[in-house]
Automatic annotation (TrEMBL):
Subunit (UniProt): Component of the Mediator complex.
GO CC, one annotated term: mediator complex
Organism of this sequence: Hypholoma sublateritium (strain FD-334 SS-4)
Intracellular or extracellular location(s): Nucleus
Pfam families, per the entry: Med17 (PF10156)
Coiled-coil regions listed in the entry: none
Protein name: Mediator of RNA polymerase II transcription subunit 17
Domain of life of the organism encoding this protein: Eukaryota
Transmembrane stretches, start-end: none
Family indicated by similarity: Belongs to the Mediator complex subunit 17 family.
Main location class: nucleus
UniProt keyword annotations, A-Z: Activator, Nucleus, Transcription, Transcription regulation
Region (Disordered): 80-100
Amino acid sequence: MTEADPEPQWKKLKLSFERPYKDDSGHPIPILYDLTPEGHSIYELKETSSARLATNLRRVFQERGTDFFDRDENAVFGQSGNAADAAPQGSSVEDTIPSEDSVPKAMTVEELHNMRLEILPQLFTALGEMSLARDLLNSILSGPQDPQSQSEAAPLLSATLVTKPPPIVSVQAFNSQVTIGSKDEALRKAAGLFKSASESMERSRLKGEKYWVDALRIRRANWGLTPAPLPMGSVTGKGADKTSKDFVISYGLEGSPPIYRRRAVAHLSTTGDADIVFPYHQNTRLRISISMPSESSTKSWSFDSPTIDNASKNLDSRLKVAQTEAVDQEIFALLVQEAGKLPTASARVSERLIAIDAAEGLDLTFELTKYQNKENICELIYHVLRVFLLRRHSIVNGERGSERRLPGKENFTILQPVIDILQYRGFCERVEVELQKVIRALETSGIPSTLSFTAVGEPGHHIVSLFSDLTKKSVGGEAVIRIDNWNTLWFTFVSPSTLTAHLTQATLTISSLPQLTQLLMDEIERCLLERICGLGRELCDVVGGIWFIDSNRCVARWEGCVLNFRISYDEHLSIGCSAFRLDSSTGKQGHTQIYDSSKLPLLTWAARAIKESSSHS
């Protein structure tokens, strides 16, 4: 083995166990059919497809008769067609129907016994004739006997030397081919086993070499290698072997608290495709954002710490990125502690978000984010169920050995809180959809409107108490609709599905979405009619008009003119309006104007209609 060729020579040896089909000259080797006693070889003759087909057809007629293709169904069951032809032509149809005796039936035991008694003597006779012919053939093939041995009379008791007849050459060649073929198959199987074993040993050797090469590279990059803890169940008594057989990689900062150093560990993988394994890796990065709102838009800048590339083979870079994650988590923990103690700024702190009003018009945000966006509601339910189960176990264990029963234990379940939260989530989504429809309808009509929707309005300690207190608690939120900076609609909701409308004249509990839709339509109609009345009083101050709301319409009267405004809705909650004017110019029929939302805003159209009516009067 040389340096240029590190592979051993025995691995390069290629043995072919297949049957040769060509000789050294490249000519095809014919198939041996037989060998004559003189040693001549008889090879298999090659036939063309047409000759083979002709032979097969000839055999069909020779073995099955010349009328093979002319046979009918009766011939298959042993009925002769000639017998049917020999029947008289004058016979009736009933004579042609086969009788029950002519239908083939299964043989009984007695018939089978009689047939056996009839056939067995003939078979024994044929067996004797074949045995006699075999003995005669063996005596002929054994060769002529020595005349001297024939002349000598054999004694009554003498040794007889029996020589084995020479085997037939063709049979011997066939047996040799069978033996060689079986040996070839056994050799192929053995070679396959040796090959798979050698490949497995080679893979293990390469994996072991790679393991220690990676360890040396990590140590050369000045990463800390510490002994791994002993496996679970290891002997720790006096005199036991307490030396570690493995090591772990420590990539945390030396000055970090122990809780962060224990998480900042990794180990080289001995199984699987991954080179290095991070058991406490959380895939989180620190994002820093700065936003400055202005009159026209909001400018924002953000920075994310580098992410890890799982496909990268550079162990040093992957350890650096993992170390960045550990440092980010420690920095974020310190920011959480200090955010509530800032003397000149206010901060809002949650589990993964810190929002600070650093200066007037400048917001600073620190956030721990993940790489991929996933639906977290299922994961939340999974962990909440585990928390509720552990909480139930703690309640049961606390009651053991004492007669005192904890309050609320009978009503505590692990599924009902989850159902309540899911119902509340769907309820909030449906309510928000209905409120958004109203906002879109108002904006389409040119009326500026805003919606402030808060699904969960409780503070953080109240949310945490849902998982710790035994008493049943609920969560709630609110929604505020502001219409044209003039009117406000306030709604509050409580889990699982309680909605309350706080109006100026009353407080109503809404039990269904159609009721909510009708309430929104009525309140928006009232707000718009009041807004039109306000416009009319401003524009018709000169003529001295009287404006008031009667039922579901806005009525205006002054000398020589009556003007009515009505609000209507279509199936998509689009807002429509009509103005009816009755004065001297319109006659008794009056004049009606229909509002078109694609041309003008609603209040602009109403102001124009009021001006036209006042000018005609």
